[in-house]
Design goal:
Length: 213
Amino acid sequence: MENEYKLLSGAMVTLALATATLVVLPYLQLSDVQPPAELKPYTDQQLRGREVYIAMGCVYCHSQQPRSQSQAPDFQRGWGRASVAGDYYYDQPHLLGTMRTGPDLFNIGARQPSVDWNLGHLYEPRAYVPGSTMPAFPFMFTLKDEAEDGDVVVKLPSSHQPWGKVVVAKPEALDLVQYLIGLDHTYPIEAGIDLPTLPETARQASAPQEATE
Ligand code: HEC
């Protein structure tokens, strides 16, 4: 019987330690994080676009977490400085992602701010990136004989323009693209402000000067 007690108390201690380090400690570390001054809250349209992003499963192929240079060459890839906790202040739920079948999108708004490009790329990625493995999302668009008042017509490269038709973006495509072009976290971060309780090394890893090294 004594052995069972030992086993049980050992298991309880392990569980308590794991809960403390994986749940309680991170919660305390992040409890006083503030949004960076230049980070704007999402507009209603961007929030709708965010819902589309979630519903379409974009997060399964795209991350939103550029890493520090000590971990990965994300900055050299043009994905921006390492993100800090405050960058996600308005993100509920966060969309960090785990897979990178496609590029990180945390700064896609800075990298590719063109509404036309983003709409066309969603309609047919291969019109812009030959050999792209990203799925097309043609059901977010309507093919019409001619555009009506208020229609947003997608300007496709002539090679992919459907013959005799215009491609009109549905509201969900417009919302999604507003969300995408709003993803711009390229403002500088003051070292330390967003990581109040992390050790000095972690602060340095996300300091802005890293970007110019
Ligand atoms: C099956 C994986 C997959 C899914 C799902 C996917 N993508 Fe992609 N995406 C890619 C790949 C691969 C690329 C790189 C090739 C390209 O640009 O087409 C890419 C590129 C992109 C780019 C251009 C990035 C850059 O740096 O130029 C954007 C923007 C984008 N995807 C948005 C989306 C959105 C929005 C969704 C959801 C509606 C989505 N993707 C769903 C795989 C995916």
